[in-house]
Design goal:
The protein has 306 residues and is α/β, with parallel strands linked by helices. The protein is built from 9 helices and 12 strands.
Length: 306
């Protein structure tokens, strides 16, 4: 049987992918320097983080490439840069637990005023006062994929009324077209959608204006999903609160006014940066490699940008 070549971005991925068929030869390229000559026969590639030009150059040199398997749930950096005959697959499901935990963490921190108490501790000040609570809140989750479902399952035990929204409505899930009527009733709005042409700027000035006074906006998706200027205007005025793991631009410039917004909790795109990520991500890669080698259908194929 002919040898089938797989290219991984890290050495530790070799062990984490598990057992692969005998005809599969696994190589490693971390994206530094030129693509190795031996890697040009790659049929299944798990890319490291590359710039657009690096990605295009590497893909052009891989004449036998059939599959690009990402380690991220978001595929926006790759859509349109992969030849049409090459299947692009994302890592949907890999970030469900970690990103859901991040949402729950910042949600509780924001409502229970943890940042204020941390500042008081640093100042050696006993700042005893009442905070808000999560119980009884109405949450609107915009994005009903694996992570959205993970967030929902974690909120329900906290006595939260959860409403789900997606591009395509289905049983128990509202259409994104219904947002104008759903936003005013939500105490918490979580955006967890992929970045596509349809979602870029989804949370714009009209979106924020429809939210009730004092509501909390959480973005754990991609920065450009929200209009930064419109969001900043609402948060700096004190009308809305926000918790962000992503910004546009990213990193957020040091002089940006959002840094000083009292109602903002900001983390530097770390929602998925946890110790269990490599195991889950390369576990998926291993499953995909075995499917590919056996001629079986792959999962998580990217269609229409996600």
């Amino acid at each position: 049987m002919a040898t089938r070549y797989v290219l991984l971005p890290t050495d530790d991925g070799r062990e984490l992918i598990g057992t692969v068929p005998a005809e599969v030869e696994v190589g490693v390229w971390n994206g530094t320097g030129d693509l190795p000559e031996a890697a040009r026969a790659t049929g299944f590639w798990v890319p490291p983080f590359l710039s657009g030009s690096q990605l295009s150059s590497a893909v052009t040199q891989m004449s036998d490439l059939q599959v690009v398997q990402l380690l991220s749930a978001g595929a926006d950096a790759y859509v349109g840069r992969i030849p049409e005959h090459v299947m692009l697959c994302d890592a949907r499901g890999v970030h469900t637990s970690s990103t859901s935990e991040w949402v729950l963490a910042v949600l509780l921190a924001a409502l229970r005023d943890i940042p204020r108490f941390v500042r008081a501790q640093e100042a050696h000040k006993w700042d005893q006062s009442r905070t808000d609570e999560l119980a009884g809140k109405r949450a609107l989750i915009v994005g009903a994929g694996a992570i959205g479902d993970g967030i929902r399952s974690r909120l329900l035990p906290f006595d939260v009324d959860v409403t789900m929204v997606a591009r395509t409505p289905r049983d128990g899930v509202h259409s994104v077209d219904e947002l104008p009527t759903l936003l005013p009733d939500a105490d918490i709005v979580v955006v967890i959608v992929p970045l596509t042409d349809a979602t870029r700027g989804l949370a714009d000035a009209k979106f924020f204006a429809a939210m009730q006074d004092g509501a909390l906006f959480i973005n754990g998706a991609r920065g450009p999903v929200a209009d930064t200027e419109a969001l900043a205007a609402e948060v700096l005025s004190g009308r809305l609160r926000a918790a962000l793991d992503v910004t546009d631009p990213e990193p957020l410039p040091a002089e940006h006014p959002l840094w000083d917004a009292e109602g903002l909790l900001l983390t530097p795109h770390v929602g998925g940066a946890v110790p269990g990520f490599p195991r889950r991500a390369f576990g998926l890669v291993g499953e995909q490699i075995r499917r590919w080698a056996a001629g079986e259908p792959l999962i998580n194929a990217v269609v229409d940008g996600y």
